[in-house]
Design goal:
Elements (H helix, E strand, L loop, with lengths): L18 H8 L16 H20 L1 H6 L4 H28 L6
Helix pairs in contact: 2-4
């Protein structure tokens, strides 16, 4: 920054350089290769989440009267919704995994 109080760069700053050359001049870190994408199956993760919602649904049915007395009978509906959406998500992840990983080839 100039010391004369102006915000203009000095005339000898080499403004004829292309943007790429200017970038290379001020670049401080080397280019790093992009990391490999993590390849993992998503269907088991969705299935575990669905299983947890199913456990919550069973628990809400066991403690139905206590939940109703506390004004939390809606927890059962929430758990049922989690199971339904989880089943849809698990099916979707199974299809995506099959497309992504293809059929296993036994050698």
């Amino acid at each position: 920054m100039p010391t004369d109080g102006t915000s203009q760069p000095p005339a000898s700053s080499g403004s004829s350089a292309s943007p790429r050359e200017a970038y290379q001049r001020v670049k401080r870190t080397p280019e790093l290769p992009a990391p490999e994408a993590v390849k993992m199956r998503m269907a088991p993760i969705a299935a575990i989440g669905t299983l947890l919602w199913a456990v919550a649904l069973v628990l809400t049915q066991i403690f139905r009267t206590e939940l109703a007395d506390a004004g939390r009978e809606w927890w059962g509906a929430c758990a049922l919704t989690g199971v339904i959406i989880g089943l849809l998500g698990t099916a979707g992840m199974a299809v995506a995994d099959k497309r992504h990983f293809g059929k296993k080839q036994d050698d």
